[in-house]
Each structure stands twice: as C-alpha cells, then as structure tokens.
Amino acid sequence: MVGDRGYTSHRFREHIWGMGARPAIPPQRHEAPVACPEWIDTNRNRVERLWARLKQWRAVATRYEKTATSFAGVLCLAAALDWLKP
C-alpha cells in the first residue's frame, strides 16, 4: 500500500498490516523515519506528479461526470494526451 503523508496514522498502518499488505507511507516530519525501499518512494512520487498534471484538466479536477464510467473515460483521455505530449 503506497500513500502520502496524509495517511501516516498508526491506526491506518496497523489496518494495512492486518490486511496482509506492507505500508509504504513516509512519516510526518516530526515522526521517526520508517524503512521504505527507494524504488517505492520514487514510484509514489511519479504517481503524485501524474495526478497533479491530470488535475490541470478541469473535468478531472472538479469531476463533472456523474457516473464512474464516464469519469474513467475522461481520466483515460487525459492520461493518453499527457503521455502523447512532447
């Protein structure tokens, strides 16, 4: 389970461990460091940057579509155009 600093509560980490997964969530600045492989943190950063670029699309940021299917279509379109962009 990969997440950002917003999900650093001990209760949430214990819930992830209880489900059989390993949490890869960086600690808050005032907390002790948590062991996390470098490649997980790199990939988490890539995903966060992708969401930041996708939210530049107004339809993605405000979620105009009413159904999950049409929203997924807009996400796919935005991701494809982001991928094609030089």
Automatic annotation (TrEMBL):
Pfam families: DDE_Tnp_1_2
InterPro entries documented for this protein: Tnp_DDE_dom (IPR025668)
Ranges of residues in domain Transposase DDE: 1-85
Top-level taxonomic group: Bacteria
Name of this protein: Transposase
Species assigned in the record: Methylobacterium variabile
